[in-house]
Amino acid sequence: MTHPAISRLLADIATAARTPIDARDRHMAAALAPHLGDPALLQGLECPCNPDRYTRHLLHNDPEAGYAAVVIAWAPGQMSPVHGHHTWCAFGVQHGWLTETFFRPDGGTARPISCLCRRPGDVSHAAADPAAIHRIANLGTEPAFSLHVYGVPYDRFAQGVNVVWAA
Ligand SMILES: [Fe+2]
């Protein structure tokens, strides 16, 4: 049985996924925010860290509406590639601390320009823009867990989400 906390989260995500496309990333981040940090949210879900790399765990896939939500499990020291996005995206921290570094394109590479600590309850979002570049990292000493929603069905995640940059 789905935990009521998950059901409420998924209902708010579904509502945000119907907002105008040019502001959907912002609405999605706002939809995630009130749910984050609730210990019940991931209760009963299997979201283990993988010692080899950060790991996505599917939370909900809605191919008709064109989005999917995942939990990402980050062991200490794990990080995403430096990347922009083919699609809108939003994420928030459920547990632990993450560091989000922003970059600007500089020729064919990406140069860091700023860095923010993301704590439980914090959200971030971006429109579909390969030049809106960031990297998320767990630079702490404990595992971290974050919720992410992307504007493509789950079976398109491999090619339809990240645009990887050299940094
Ligand atoms: Fe990203």
Features:
167 residues; alpha+beta; five-stranded antiparallel beta sheet; 3 helices; 41% strand; binds fe (ii) ion
How does this model look, in words?
The chain is α+β, with helices and mostly antiparallel strands and 167 residues long. Helices cover 16% and strands 41% of the residues. The chain is built from 3 helices and 10 strands, in the order H-H-E-E-E-E-E-E-E-E-E-H-E. Helix 1 packs antiparallel against helix 2 (24-32). The mean pLDDT is 96. The chain binds fe (ii) ion. Residues 83, 85, 89, 134 line the site of fe (ii) ion.
Chain-wise SSE layout:
Elements: H1 4-16, H2 24-32, E1 55-62, E2 67-74, E3 83-85, E4 89-95, E5 98-106, E6 109-118, E7 123-126, E8 129-137, E9 144-150, H3 157-160, E10 162-164
Antiparallel strand pairs: 1-2, 2-9, 3-8, 3-10, 4-7, 4-9, 5-6, 5-8
Helix pairs in contact: 1-2
- Range of helix content: 10-25%
The rounded Rg comes to 15 Å
Largest sheet: 5 strands, antiparallel
Beta strands, count: 10
Topology order in helix (H) and strand (E) letters: HHEEEEEEEEEHE
Spatial shape: globular
The main sheet orders its strands as 1-2-9-4-7
